[in-house]
Write a structure and sequence with these properties.
With 190 residues, the chain is of the alpha+beta class. The chain contains six helices and nine strands. The strands form two sheets. A six-stranded antiparallel beta sheet has the order 1-2-3-9-4-7, with no helix packed on it.
Length: 190
């Protein structure tokens, strides 16, 4: 459904919601600060809805904006991809679309392997869920433990795998064109 189609149905929806709640145009005007004539034109489709008008109306009716405008429903967000086994390592895809940023949950079995650093285009982020992950990156040879993360440009020679002490489970996010992951977090409370 196009944006124009969604917006075309807003007026009727606004009128229906207002009448279901037994609110007059004057009462809604008083609550929202929007003139009666503007509210009337919105409901009749003579005025194009905007956020400046819809947000106070949504607040007055205690409705989410999506419900007020009748936005199309969002599909099932769950990713149900089959695990992939490559070189003895099991990858569970956590993203649907090929290309762009890719996320995987990875299980590396216990094994001893001689590091063989490689390079390629991209940017990678690793986060250890269980076990210990050995990471060889350029001149560094480190072991990441549960809760530790690493990020790096994959043009730097790198290799990662089991320490040989046991299996390791980790998350891997990979951006093929050097895309970096952006984490948006709320600032901590002091």
């Amino acid at each position: 459904m196009s944006t124009d189609e969604v917006l075309a149905g807003v007026g009727d929806r606004l009128r229906r919601i207002r009448k279901e709640r037994e609110v007059t145009l004057a009462g809604l005007s008083e609550t929202t600060g929007i003139s009666v004539s503007t509210l009337s034109r919105l409901e009749s489709g003579q005025r194009r809805p905007s956020l400046e008008l819809l947000l106070p109306i949504a607040r007055a009716h205690s409705l989410p904006l999506d419900e007020l405008v009748g936005a199309p429903p969002v599909g099932d967000p769950r990713v149900r991809a089959e695990p992939i086994v490559r070189y003895g390592r099991t990858h569970w895809p956590l993203t649907r679309q090929p290309g762009g940023l890719q996320a995987f949950k990875v299980l590396e079995p216990r094994r001893t392997a001689e590091p063989d650093p490689r390079t390629h285009e991209g940017y990678e982020w690793l986060y250890v869920l269980s076990g210990r992950l050995r990471l060889v990156l350029g001149e560094h040879d480190v072991v990441l433990t549960v809760g530790e993360a690493a990020e790096f440009d994959t043009r730097v020679p790198h290799w990662f795998g089991s320490t040989g002490e046991g299996p390791v489970e980790f998350l891997s996010l990979f951006g093929p064109q050097g895309e970096r992951m952006h984490v948006r977090a709320r600032p901590g409370r002091s």
